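Hello,

Our lab assistant flagged a job as stuck in the queue for most of the afternoon. It eventually completed. Since we weren't sure the result was trustworthy after the delay, we are filing this so someone can double-check. Below is the sequence as submitted and the structure that was eventually returned. Let us know if re-running is recommended.
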Amino acid sequence: MGRIRQAIQVHGRDCWTLFDSGARNSYIVPEVAALVPTSKVDRPFRSRLGGSVKESKETAHLDALVEGHRISFHAMVIDDIGNDDDGTPIEILMGALAMQQWGIRLIPAEEKLDLTHYPEEFLEF
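-- returned structure --
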């Protein structure tokens, strides 16, 4: 499992993002959710994150730029993701499912992303 931190752009706004291969799902805070389309859920989702249980009553669809590459993914809205190791508030936690969909791999030793597997086009069977 690895973690990389960097900003991605959502509707022209830089959002501090934790790319976390140890998390299955993606999460955003309400400030980011205000920038994108959201939907209420019938029943709240609960996730154990950062040592506590977080509840999401809303989901969101994000279109974003990661190092100039367009991506689109689904995330759960939670009140607080937490701070990174330097104390910076995390606004987006991108989980393994979204990273896999967009060919994003982590290079923890260099603290950077590998986007060499980013799909320029989709081949559907």
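-- support follow-up --
The delay was a queue issue, not a problem with the job. The result is valid. The mean pLDDT is 94. The radius of gyration is 14 Å.
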